[in-house]
Design brief:
Layout: E1 9-10, E2 38-46, H1 53-67, E3 72-78, H2 85-92, E4 99-103, H3 110-120, E5 123-128, H4 139-149, E6 153-157, E7 164-165, H5 170-186, H6 188-191, E8 202-205, H7 206-209, H8 221-228, E9 234-238, E10 240-241, H9 253-269, H10 273-299, H11 305-328, H12 330-333, H13 339-370, H14 375-400
Helix pairs in contact: 5-9, 10-11, 11-13, 13-14
Bound molecules: guanosine-5'-diphosphate-alpha-D-mannose and manganese (II) ion.
């Protein structure tokens, strides 16, 4: 059976959601030759799109036949739509030989549909577009232009020049922007890389995500690709999100919950655990330095209580800085040699740690005096919170910002 013969459904991968370095589906015909690689594979995820699928396939084929004839494929990945979109798509394969159809019966979801499509794709460049014509097909050529200019990923954005949404309700606009802001707080290094992280219309070089285990939740496949792929150069093209032609959006509250879950999961996956543990060990050593100096000042030099506490804390901060600069962030500080740079890092580290000290005292008071929490438990929670604060802000400001490549 030749998988490329019209009217044949593609096999549905059931392996983990990993993008193969090369196309995996071989022709099962007599020659048993592997399918020829092509340049571009575009996934069209569908759920109840029987009224739109013919139009989108026609428009995409017209466009791509005019720019990369014979060097692309369209892959409809349908989740066993009640309106039998997969069947309509299959009937189109006679007229559109570059169209392939996958019907998933045991797995559902927009993001995993895209990945399953990419797993059977033959293209060097992997893309996704909605079936409902809300993503204007014409933008595709500009996205391909970005990739041909050298971009690793090209995303259609509603939030750049020539971008926009048709007449979305204020609520939908608010929710979309709110979701984006939340993403910027939890995952600034990922969500902050594009102007429209919610976009479901983009393409990426296979090499940037080959071998990566993708583990998306809900609708936001772009965040997963940005979070786990090796993406250096990102191109963006403005587009206006159109009115739906037929059918209705499948976005429900569930997608927003899934999105939050996805952000947290990516945050944990991308948390620099090794560095954080080193930072914790250094911080722990600082406790001994602080206590030791405090003891010496109080017994040998007979310093007053406050003066001893301040001096010992400051010595501990400097000791922590030196160890962090050498060990925790050594790989980064090595790239910023010189006394001036080191002094800059020390001053930032010091300021952030002193703010941490204030935060510590405020938290203890809040939990003890306002919430009536046990003082030692309050202190422990304050230390843990301030350690996270010190680590994250120092990594972002003291070492990363001055990190000149
Ligand atoms: N296979 C499959 N499985 N396809 C799905 C599923 C699913 O569970 N849910 C939705 N789709 C398909 C729809 O058939 C459509 O082709 C596309 O995914 C988008 O679904 P919509 O329900 O129309 O989403 P939207 O228009 O509200 O939002 C879209 O555009 C936004 C802006 O780019 C989505 O792509 C969002 O992810 C995106 O942020
Ligand atoms: Mn839509």
């Amino acid at each position: 059976m030749d998988l490329n013969q019209p009217n044949h459904l593609l096999p549905v991968p059931s392996n983990p959601l990993e993008i193969p370095a090369a196309p995996t589906i071989a022709l099962a015909s007599s020659t048993d030759a592997r399918e020829p690689p092509i340049y571009f594979s575009l996934i069209i995820p569908t759920y109840n799109e029987c009224k739109n699928i013919k139009t989108i396939v026609e428009k995409l084929s017209q466009l791509l036949d005019g720019s990369i004839p014979g060097d692309y494929e369209l892959i409809v990945v349908d989740d066993d739509s009640p309106d039998r979109t997969w069947e309509v798509a299959l009937s189109l394969t006679f007229d559109y030989p570059q169209l392939r159809v996958m019907r998933r019966e045991y797995e559902r979801g927009l993001s995993t549909a895209v990945i399953r499509g990419w797993q059977v794709a033959r293209g060097e460049v992997l893309g996704v577009i909605d079936a409902d014509l809300q993503h204007p097909p014409e933008t595709l050529l500009q996205l391909l232009g970005e990739i041909q200019r050298g971009a690793d990923l090209a995303a259609a954005s509603r939030h750049v020049a020539e971008g926009g949404v048709s007449d979305w309700s204020v609520v939908r606009r608010f929710l979309s922007r709110g979701a984006q802001t939340l993403g910027l707080v939890i995952l600034p290094g990922v969500v902050g890389r594009v102007s429209d992280p919610m976009s479901g219309y983009f393409m990426v070089r296979r090499t940037c995500i080959a071998g990566k285990m993708l583990n998306p939740a809900g609708y936001k496949i772009l965040i997963e690709v940005l979070g786990r792929g090796n993406i250096r150069w990102i191109g963006e093209v403005g587009y206006v999100f159109q009115e739906r032609q037929a059918g209705e959006s499948k976005v429900t509250w569930k997608q927003y919950i899934e999105y939050l879950r996805h952000l947290v999961r990516l945050r944990i996956a991308r948390w620099p655990m090794g560095r954080f543990l080193r930072f914790g060990v250094v911080g722990f050593s600082g406790v001994f330095v602080d206590m030791g100096i405090f003891y010496l000042l109080r017994t040998l030099l007979d310093f007053g209580l406050t003066r001893s506490a301040m001096v010992s804390s400051e010595v501990a901060i400097i000791s922590n800085f030196l160890w962090n600069d050498l060990w925790t962030f050594g790989d980064i500080s090595k790239r910023q040699p010189g006394k001036r740079q080191r002094l800059k890092r020390l001053l930032k580290f010091n300021t952030i740690c002193l703010m941490g000290l204030i935060l510590n005292v405020l938290l203890v008071n809040l939990m003890f005096n306002v919430f009536g929490m046990n003082e030692y438990l309050a202190k422990l929670i304050a230390i843990a919170t301030v350690t996270l604060w010190n680590f994250w802000i120092n990594m972002k400001l003291s070492w990363r910002v001055t990190d000149v490549n």
